[in-house]
Amino acid sequence: MSHDVSEPGWSPQGPVVELSDEESWKRLSSKNFGHLALSTRGRPDIFPVNYYSDGRTILFRSSKGAKLNELVENPHVAFEVDADTPDNVWSVVVHATAKVLKDDLVLSVAARETLPAWIPVEEFVYVSLEPNSIRGRLFERHLPIGRI
Amino acid sequence: MSHDVSEPGWSPQGPVVELSDEESWKRLSSKNFGHLALSTRGRPDIFPVNYYSDGRTILFRSSKGAKLNELVENPHVAFEVDADTPDNVWSVVVHATAKVLKDDLVLSVAARETLPAWIPVEEFVYVSLEPNSIRGRLFERHLPIGRI
């Protein structure tokens, strides 16, 4: 799960820099909106998700529905967070195993307060993603000096 | 593949409105950045993608790499586009079959000009998503008048 920040390579969009695991977690933890990819019997699905990360795991709420059913059937997931800045676009992908929490007393105050307010009529559970691997990449908008 | 705009239901984040297929395609076609979910042998993966849509199919470029290999192994994909506005968040998900185009002469000028500039050293192909279903949802930030 470790590699250093590398020299820029090339992507379809231009130069691409691989981010270290530490830098990838730092960027992922700085955001609270991402995309969750699931797969049931070979059919992928995708959901936008509000999340909280302490830099080691990822936490979100799920109501009873398609997302939760698919997670229980196949807990292998991919989770992606990205951001657009004037100079570059970065993207961090975590491959993880999803776990429905039986007891939300373990949650920190930070986790409870960061996740968006819930409508009380809905039943929900907390889902934790236990990471297996992380990969962060930064796509530069401009060619670095000396490359052309 | 058709349902009308419904009365708001409830989601974990608040009231949710189902969008018609026409409205979903209109919103999807108004953007050019989305997320593609793939699945290989039960393991989902996710990629941020610049795309072009003419309101019936979705088109993007892919270089030779993980994304393309996974697409060829299992062409079933999910593609999601969303946007954040002051009043609401909307999200459109298309379940589709990916097809690598053998001949890019079929592409319209609009498609060529909308997709971001490519670095000429990279080899790439065009991938088209043939939709099987579309679902659009709009999450309201505020409770509608009369609901509380």
From TrEMBL, chains A, B:
Q: What SUPFAM superfamilies does the entry give?
A: FMN-binding split barrel
Xref: InterPro entries? Pyridox_Oxase-rel, Split_barrel_FMN-bd
User: One Pfam family of this protein, by short name?
Assistant: Pyridox_ox_2
Q: Under what name is this protein listed?
A: Nitroimidazol reductase NimA-like FMN-containing flavoprotein (Pyridoxamine 5'-phosphate oxidase superfamily)
- In its UniProt entry, the species of origin is given as Microbacterium halimionae
